[in-house]
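Title: Prediction job returns without error message
Component: structure pipeline
Severity: low
Priority: P3
Assignee: unassigned

Description:
Job completed but the reporter wants confirmation the result is attached to the right record. Sequence as submitted:
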Amino acid sequence: MVNPLSFFLRPKVTETFEFRDEELEALGAEIRKEIPKIFGHSLAIRELDSGSDNSTEIEISNLGNPHYDVERFGISFVASPRHADVLMVTGAVTLNMAEAVKKTYEAMPHPKYVIAVGDDACDGGIYKGSYAVLGGVDKILPVDVKIPGNPPSPKEILQGIFALVKKASK
């Protein structure tokens, strides 16, 4: 008979995995240096899904995992548009969500910026021309940065955020 505790008392079989992405670290250091100059604090982002397939949201949520950990670069995601500096919109803007997108933007304090993430948010993507879709976010809001991709990788999203920070500093 096998002792049930033997499964718990075995030596560990996990290995430590060290992974450093030098390009990510350099990009993060530049972002960390620029954000306080422009915003005086961390960069607060409100993410809004206006009709996507959630692939872009998965990539955005990866920004918070231990590999990317964007909070160490001074970037945070907030629940309220009243606390946000940036509105990050994903998905093609549907007729049903257009008013919600506008109200979210209007609730943000000035200065406010908009990032369109993913092909759908940039120009409507595969839904372009559909009876239920207005198109990209630029149909109803002024878009500062577009990050194409279906979906864009977390590193591409971070590069887009950096492009916005550089644009805001001018």
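Comment from assignee: result matches the submitted record. The CA atoms of residues 101 and 122 lie 14 Å apart.
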